[in-house]
Amino acid sequence: MCAVQKWGREAGSGRRTRAPSLLCLRHLHANISCSGWGNGYADIVKENKLFESYYKELGLVPEGEFEQFMDAMREPLPATIRITGYKSHAKEILHCLKEKYFKDIQELEIDGQKIEAPQALSWYPDEQAWHTNMSRKIIRKSPLLEKFHQFLVSETESILDMCAAPGSKTAQLIEMLHADMDVPFPEGFVIANDVDNKRCYLLVHQAKRLNSPCIMVVNHDASCIPTLHINSGGKRDVLFYDRILCDVPCSGDGTLRKNIDVWKKWTTSNSLHLHGLQLRIAVRGVEQLAVGGRMVYSTCSLNPIEDEAVIAALLEKSEGALELADSSADLPGLKWMPGVSSWKLMTKEGMWYSDWSEVPSSRQTQIRPTMFPPTDSEKLASMHLERCMRILPHHQNTGGFFVAVLVKKAPMPWNKRFPKTGGSPAASLPTDAPHLAESVEGEGGGPERKLGGEAEEEEAFKGASLAQETAAKQDGVCGPPPLKKMKLFGYKEDPFVFLTEDDPVFTTIQSFYDLSPDFPKLNVLTRTHEGKKRHLYMVSKELRNMLLNNSERMKVINTGVKVWSRNSDGEEFGCAFRLAQEGIYTLQPYIRSRIITVSVEDIKVLLTQENPFLSKLQDHAHAQAKKLGSLLGDLSEPQCSIQLCGWRGKTSIRAFVPRNERFHYLRMLGVEVFKDKQGQKPSDGEKEGKEGEEAEEGTTSPGFPVYLTEGFPPRDGLL
């Protein structure tokens, strides 16, 4: 599950408002981000008679198209590329792709297959997503595509998303927050959750490519993810999310084209086993959704038991609090089939049931009433299940997918029926809040004044859960999940420790980098209570609020962006911390010293040579680097700025930029960067840099942190 939250004030009113918040709930499955690149399985027979008979009988595929549907399912998924990251950088990479690599691919024929030129997905904005008929195997093995392959591998580590790794949806949400590159701390934030501890670290890896201070990765069971609190105006309020992505675990039969082992493992039992969990996760999601907010429920399954059945059960239990949104106009160009309002259920033995009344008692623990369509035709029509969207593989050469957009119109009925008792309710809270606000003294003040504490909170949930469990036995409709105690698995994370405004660290950093007065010191944190601080990170003020108020109820895997790293050599020069490349776009608006302006040629030197002599820089940059004056160049009509963190030695200068980011920036400047096919042979520039480094060995004095920036004019045809 993934969610976003924002705070702000209404213009001219002084009244505090909440800006969009986003929660991303995931449980077990997630998209394997590399659409159509999985041709590495041994020969698997792409046949499953049960699958074919099931979907043919359901009639989800338009009449006369079933053979096309099955043929598409047996074909490898086409390679798909999505350009991610900040808009200005994305435009440069798009230009590079179109003008260099896509042109080279046209009219190629490999192993008897004619390679089609990549095509932009018509429904995806700004030509930021493309697909082609090439498989991963062809791209990896063909000498004619070696440069393109290296480009994809390298750029995937910085700005490309191969549309399948866990975290691709989360990355899109982060990009939306950072639509304006000039705003270092957007008001909103994203919380990304996964029940699998190891998958959480994949999410972290994906999110780190975007270097955002507004993302938090947490590790919880999505069906009972804890309610979080925030400090709002001196009171401890419940956090409700404006947007929730509920990407639930599913049977994955829409992924047959890339997950080929599903062919031999698929059975209808998969959907029957997952339906209850999917519904519990969806219920927990809408409980935490703000009134007026939207939740997207999605699966990579085509099965109505996992799709429309979950939505129908959720709508029925909401008693009008939820409604399906009509999203038909949101993605023009995307082909999809409307949701269905009639379906049947089949066991793995081939037994069909059309209604709960037909299910024998021996089957009623496996098959539940919520798996069938509502029997009340008027109620069923009012649900507008046709507003659900099912993407079929043969319509646009894609995988299979299901999505439904739910709008919360009112508090959930069970939250209204079972309010928390034993304390006066806070007027600022919506009526469906599962917890009442608890008064506190303020963010940095004294201890909280708890009204009932965790015991009272647990009792409120127990009451609601017990009553709903009774109702569920009567009508077969799931209610809210029972409260579960948080269980911690996996690696024990280091603590998140916020620095105070008078922390001694800031004394030297403030003067060394001449930080502006509005620099948010309270947003800086470290990962240790004791000893020297190795790294300093920054988060948005909203995430700081979250961390301070939920440390005992939330297992945080990662948050914040690294902005400074310790360099003990710098202590004798007044500051032990050098800038970190990951956080430079967050820090840049606040730094007023140790900035030098460099040209395109200087950037090329710094990125192709590991430790070049200062004399390699052009005169203007050389002079600035020697005196390290407070200077920021302002080039006319810059197309895309590049900021690099570096360290100046006695006679050399070094850019602290990871290898793949170096390649990324060089490509933006039009420089071809490729490694030798056999081995990792260094380029001439890299050799030269190492020679320079060796020449300095034994004579290099401790360096000074420097900050490099470069801008260049726009190309023809680019805005």
TrEMBL record:
Annotated S-adenosyl-L-methionine binding sites: 163-169, 194, 221, 247
Active site: 300
Molecular functions (GO terms): tRNA (cytidine-5-)-methyltransferase activity; tRNA binding
Lineage of source species: Eukaryota, Metazoa, Chordata, Craniata, Vertebrata
InterPro entries in alphabetical order: MeTrfase_RsmB-F_NOP2_cat, MeTrfase_RsmB-F_NOP2_dom, Pre-PUA_NSUN2, PUA_NSUN2, RCMT, RCMT_NCL1, SAM-dependent_MTases_sf
Keyword Transcription regulation in record: no
Region (Disordered) location: 419-454, 677-719
Subcellular location: Nucleus; Secreted, Extracellular exosome
Domain SAM-dependent MTase RsmB/NOP-type: 69-409
Gene3D superfamilies the record matches: Vaccinia Virus protein VP39
Protein name (record): tRNA (cytosine(34)-C(5))-methyltransferase
GO cellular component: cytoplasm; extracellular region; nucleus
Annotated source species: Scophthalmus maximus
Family of the protein in this entry: Belongs to the class I-like SAM-binding methyltransferase superfamily. RsmB/NOP family.
Keyword terms, alphabetized: Methyltransferase, Nucleus, RNA-binding, S-adenosyl-L-methionine, Transferase, tRNA processing, tRNA-binding
PROSITE patterns in the cross-refs: SAM_MT_RSMB_NOP
Catalytic activity reported: cytidine(34) in tRNA precursor + S-adenosyl-L-methionine = 5-methylcytidine(34) in tRNA precursor + S-adenosyl-L-homocysteine + H(+); cytidine(49) in tRNA + S-adenosyl-L-methionine = 5-methylcytidine(49) in tRNA + S-adenosyl-L-homocysteine + H(+); a cytidine in mRNA + S-adenosyl-L-methionine = a 5-methylcytidine in mRNA + S-adenosyl-L-homocysteine + H(+); cytidine(50) in tRNA + S-adenosyl-L-methionine = 5-methylcytidine(50) in tRNA + S-adenosyl-L-homocysteine + H(+)
EC numbers on record: 2.1.1.203
Main location, first listed in the record: nucleus
The encoding gene: NSUN2
Composition skew (Basic and acidic residues), residue ranges: 677-692
GO BP annotations, alphabetical order: tRNA methylation
